Every structure is written in C-alpha cells, then in structure tokens.
Amino acid sequence: MAYLSARTGVAVPVAAGQQLTVTNTHGQQVVDMWALDAHDASRFVSAPHTWMRTGRLSIRAGDELSDTARRPLLAFDEDTSSGEHDLLIPSCDIARYRELGVEGYHDNCRDNYFEALAAADIEPLPFVPQPLNLFMRVPIAADGSVSIQPPVSKPGDRVRFTALEDVIVVLSACPQDLAPTNGPGRVPTGVAYEVVGAAEGAR
Ligand SMILES: [Zn+2]
Q: Which of 15, 24, 87, 127 is the most buried (most CB within 10 A)?
C-alpha cells in the first residue's frame, strides 16, 4: 500500500489484468483520477464517453470506462463508498484559485496531473482531460443546476478498478481548501492506493 500525500499527485502504471485500489484513508478526500493508454498517451479515459456508455452522470461498480473511441480501458469493480463520484467538474487549477482570491501559488490538480506524468517520463497531450472525481459529491437538481457538496464517504471507503489494457493512472489528492469539496473542515488529506494482481502480459 502506497500513500499519496495531501495536495500531491502521482502516476501509477497498471498493467492489463492488474487492479488498482484507492482508499479514502481520512474519509472525505476527493481524488481526481485520469487513465491514459500506457503505450499511447493520446488515448485516455473520457468522462463524457463513459457516461454516454453507462447512461448516467456517475460511475458505479460494474461500469466500464471508455476512451474517446468508445473502447473500454478500465473496469470499475468495487465501491465500498456511498457511490458518489463526479464526472462533470473540471480539475482545480490556478485560475480557479484566483477566482477564490488566492494571489500567490496554490497547489492544484491541473499542475499535479502534468507534474506526475513528467516525473514518470510521459508526455501527455497539452490539455487536462475531464477527470473522474472520486468521492466528489455534486448533486444535480431537477432544473439542471449543480453544486459542490462535502463528500459523504467515510474513512476506509475504497474503490477498485481493473485495467483492461496497460494504463497509466494519474491520481491527485485535490488541494481544495477554500471550498467544502474535501469536507466542511476544508482540510485536504492524503489517500492510500495499491496495485495488485498479475499482469496479463504486455501487448
Ligand atoms: Zn483539485
């Protein structure tokens, strides 16, 4: 089990057949998650293609997560949380923190994405795909309005994915501390993650 420190990101190779678990150690931490084809960084899990496939604006255990050509890259196997995950809200970035009044630098999921991939020697496309925001609670009202609410996940809640191809998963422990994204206390925390299982063999 590895630990992703509060406010930071990491790129995790997960070979086809292996499983990745992400555990919400403290309970209310949102984790921005992306998955790229390990052999072609222009292929990535696409949130809209995924919800088009599932027919709902969230993901549930049993769903497959698709790329922009509608080919599944990951299977979502298990979810011990209440099942609230967001596919709509873009990553936080420095522009968002400017809107919130921050004048200097503020850690953000966009920079975590690029820094984690650079540290893994992977050159991604020059934009940040829409993340899967694990444990993020964004209720959609009947009139279509959305709001970001504190998560309802609990300490130890866990999600598990199986790689259907060799992928690089990027995780960012969201550093949002000015809105209740990571709980009413607005204190970002770390999360635990682990890759288990045998690879099916390289493509
Ligand atoms: Zn964030």
A: 24
pTM: 0.97
Residue 37 is part of which domain span?
2-196
Structural domain contains residue 78: yes
- Residue 192 and residue 87: Cα distance in Å, rounded? 21
Q: Establish if 185 belongs to a structural domain.
A: yes
DSSP 8-state assignment for residue 86:
B
Question: How many domains in the chain?
Answer: 1
Instruction: Determine the distance separating the centroid of ligand 1 and the alpha carbon of 109, expressed in angstroms.
Output: 4
CA of 121 to the centre of ligand 1 (A): 22
Kindly state whether residue 201 falls inside one of the protein's structural domains.
no
Q: Distance, CA 64 to ligand 1 centroid (Å)?
A: 24
**135 in a domain, yes or no?**
yes
Query: How many Å lie between the centroid of ligand 1 and the Cα of residue 181?
Result: 9
- Helices marked H in 19-121 — which ranges? 47-54, 94-99, 109-119
92 CA from centroid of ligand 1 (Å): 4
Q: How far apart are CA 131 and CA 138, in angstroms?
A: 14
pLDDT digits (tens, 9 = 90+) for 146-201: 999 999 999 999 999 999 999 999 999 999 999 999 999 999 999 999 999 988 86
